[in-house]
């Protein structure tokens, strides 16, 4: 081809130079509705085009050009409008820029789109308009973006700062734009790369639950992407409880977007025989009762398991011997239940704490502490303030955890405790797991610390280690809260006064930059 033609072709895109037709974008009518040309809602100005270029690049446009040539297409009586109009019906005005970009590829050979979402939108329009080579070029661009993107997996201290911008992060928010490989086999390599990038991006269940940016991205995922995440053999967790909580968190936000078959498919991916004792004895039975007694499609009846099968799984999980467990799967359980589903998977997920400890920072602002201590006369003899974790709510072993500082009037020491609660994700209308309606005895492997400051250096004024085998917590506030902290954790410089005076006078050693701070370090169960 002449180099002059190659050079000039991109420059005539969207211009009237040598053009002999117009591309007209319009809003597509309702299915089955009849629309006349004047009744169509046009989007923007017509795009000057060249029938030779579009006819060679697109079978769709070629057919329209040929119909015009045969005089089969209705034309306007206005002399200025007699040249061919190639119509492109669209679902919304937002699609127009991407349709223009797809047409532009026929002239330039380039995908004029920035970012994953834009490339996917252009690809969709290119497939619709049958622009030869454009979808393949979009796939090449997407593959380059996915392979070049560096993904941060949260480790160590979890902070509020959002995850760095990346193609993978952008992909999480537009998963629904990707065609299924069965519908578009050419997209299969991109879909495979996206699935491969999904798990490293989210890291593990603890990272998702305790990192605000990842938690938000999880809630935006369609069910198909959540299925990829939960079915992965490399998606780690501290316990399977956190995986079930992750699914409950997503389900509470997306229940209306699912049907019974989708919920069944997602719930089947939780490895129930690896749930901990608190979940087996408190959470799973309640979910089963909600399912049996709740109305079909009710948000509280989202986990499809019977009370009888929940009991069988609890019994099976308590069987320590591998041989006995295997016998149960081929014996009494097989005729009644699908023991080949992941609910009964013998292998557990990778332990995300096997090589690292995770530290979560918490703080109580000076203002919050002052307000609580200032109410001592109103409360009689004590006051308490909850710490806020840097990543928001903290979830470990499938439960929510909070730091609590407690002090009595005239006390010379303040207490520091760790509090456990049932996560709000389970608090559905009508559920037996609603707030305050269910109790569970829980253990935790963790180290709680409160900071003090001396000579400008930070020190640990108080340290308390918790061990999971010591069941010292109660979710539901029905059990005796013994052994989950210390009533004399922080020695005060003077007895705690009531409100009306300087209530923080005894706390000076623990306050820095207007905050009382500390950490909760989650320990590996193998430490």
Automatic annotation (TrEMBL):
The lineage of its organism: Eukaryota, Viridiplantae, Chlorophyta, core chlorophytes, Chlorophyceae. Pfam families: BACK. It comes from the Eukaryota. Coiled coil: none annotated. Residues 216-283 form the BACK domain. This is BACK domain-containing protein.
């Amino acid at each position: 081809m002449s180099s002059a033609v190659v050079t000039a072709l991109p420059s005539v895109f969207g211009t009237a130079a040598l053009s002999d037709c117009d591309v007209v974008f319009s809003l597509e009518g309702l299915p089955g509705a009849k629309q006349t040309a004047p009744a169509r809602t046009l989007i923007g100005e017509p795009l000057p085009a060249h029938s030779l270029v579009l006819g060679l690049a697109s079978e769709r446009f070629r057919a329209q050009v040929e119909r015009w040539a045969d005089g089969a297409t209705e034309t306007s009586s206005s002399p200025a409008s007699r040249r061919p109009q190639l119509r492109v019906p669209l679902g919304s005005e937002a699609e127009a820029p991407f349709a223009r970009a797809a047409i532009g590829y026929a002239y330039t050979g380039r995908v004029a789109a920035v970012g994953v979402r834009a490339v996917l939108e252009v690809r969709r329009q290119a497939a619709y308009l049958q622009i030869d080579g454009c979808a393949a070029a979009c796939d090449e661009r997407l593959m380059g973006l996915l392979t070049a993107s560096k993904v941060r997996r949260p480790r160590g201290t979890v902070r509020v700062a959002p995850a760095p911008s990346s193609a993978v992060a952008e992909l999480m928010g537009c998963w629904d734009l990707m065609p299924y490989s069965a519908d578009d086999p050419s997209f299969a390599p991109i879909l495979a790369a996206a699935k491969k990038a999904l798990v490293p991006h989210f890291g593990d269940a603890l990272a998702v639950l305790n990192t605000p940016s990842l938690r938000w991205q999880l809630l935006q995922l369609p069910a198909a992407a959540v299925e990829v995440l939960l079915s992965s053999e490399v998606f780690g967790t501290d316990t399977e409880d956190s995986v079930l909580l992750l699914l409950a968190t997503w389900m509470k936000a997306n229940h209306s977007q699912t049907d019974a078959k989708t919920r069944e498919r997602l719930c089947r991916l939780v490895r129930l025989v690896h749930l901990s004792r608190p979940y087996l004895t408190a959470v799973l039975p309640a979910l089963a009762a909600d399912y049996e007694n709740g109305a079909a499609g009710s948000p509280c009846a989202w986990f499809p398991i019977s009370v009888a099968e929940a009991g069988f799984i609890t019994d099976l999980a308590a069987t320590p011997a591998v041989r006995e467990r295997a016998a149960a799967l081929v014996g009494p359980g097989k005729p009644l239940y699908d023991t080949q589903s992941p609910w009964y998977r013998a292998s557990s997920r990778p332990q995300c704490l096997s090589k690292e400890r995770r530290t979560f920072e918490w703080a109580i602002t000076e203002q919050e502490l002052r307000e609580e201590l200032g109410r001592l006369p109103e409360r009689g003899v004590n006051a308490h303030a909850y710490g806020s974790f840097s990543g928001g709510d903290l979830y470990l072993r499938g439960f929510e955890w909070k730091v609590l500082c407690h002090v009595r009037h005239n006390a010379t020491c303040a207490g520091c405790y760790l509090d456990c609660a049932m996560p709000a994700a389970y608090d559905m209308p009508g559920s037996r797991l609603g707030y305050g309606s269910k109790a569970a005895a829980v253990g935790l492997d963790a180290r709680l610390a409160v900071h003090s400051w001396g000579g400008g250096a930070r020190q640990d004024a108080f340290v308390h280690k918790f061990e999971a085998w010591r069941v010292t917590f109660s979710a539901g506030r029905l059990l005796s809260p013994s052994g989950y902290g210390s009533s004399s954790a922080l020695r005060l410089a003077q007895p705690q006064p009531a409100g009306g005076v300087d209530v923080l006078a005894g706390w000076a050693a623990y306050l820095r930059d207007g905050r009382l701070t500390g950490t909760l370090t989650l320990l590996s169960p193998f430490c």
